[in-house]
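Archive transcription. Copying these from loose printouts into the bound notebook so they stop getting lost. Printout 1 of 2:
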Amino acid sequence: MPDITFHLSDGSEVGFEAPEGVTLMQAATGYGVDGILAECGGGASCGTCHVYVDPEWAARLPAPSAREDETLGFTAAERLPTSRLACQVMLSPDHQGLSVTVPAEQR
């Protein structure tokens, strides 16, 4: 089970051991991480699970799909080079120590 850390917009952090085989969004909503709204339920169509992946981790994740890339163009918070939709990041043991930041705005 990977340990992951969410850095929230208020400066606080939420870290926990996430189950393998679920998405980062599912882990966040299951744990009650503030700021991960997940309005579309993981369909990569709303952008309300937008996160900024720590630069050390960005290159270690698979590239975004065309659908994810398109949806990232419509997020409420600024899109950065390390922006990802948490619903598109499937967790595995390789994600031990993954760190992401939740933008202040998701709508």
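Printout 2 of 2:
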Amino acid sequence: MPQDFLVTGPEDAKITIVLAHGAGGAMDATWMENMSSALADKGLRVVRFEFDYMAARRSTGKRSPPPRAELLKQEYEAVIDRLGPQGTLVIAGKSMGGRVASMIADELRDMGKISGLLCLGYPFHPIGKPDNLRTDHLAEMKTPTVICQGTRDLFGSREEVSGYTLSNMIEILWLEDGDHDFQPRKAISGFTITEHVTTVANHVTTWAAALRKPRSR
């Protein structure tokens, strides 16, 4: 395994999840560590990587913004090629990372490279711009998909998302009172972030176990 990947979970796992970070958080951010550990505890293997702009921050210290999605798509596809065959492979991402993964999922599945897509807090629209939707490709999604979303996520709340046209291949796991990081207000909802992360891990484990490796065209 290349040294610029972070691998969590058993090496002999039948299911591997490739997990991309969000726009502002590195692959070893606390949120990424906690989610990876929760998934690994269920027997899944999680492989994290960084897009080039984020990796450059480690050497330069400069917080440059992410490049255009087209370039990030190419970088994600290159990661999948570097990993090679991994049994059942799911591409995933936190926020922006999940959006990028969603833009390449159908093509990779048609090629027989992946079996599913996991989005952890999908940015359905920019904050404060509910009409600027990022959902066109989601209406046509053919890849089995799970989107885990807090009900009060500012990038797409339960009320907003209920009105969107999404493919029937997409399942949404709603986390009660969760924000974009799944953080609930315990005094209001009674839930904790640990409980929500565990709920995600349990659901993803059951879902991924039922996926089939697609045949390439």
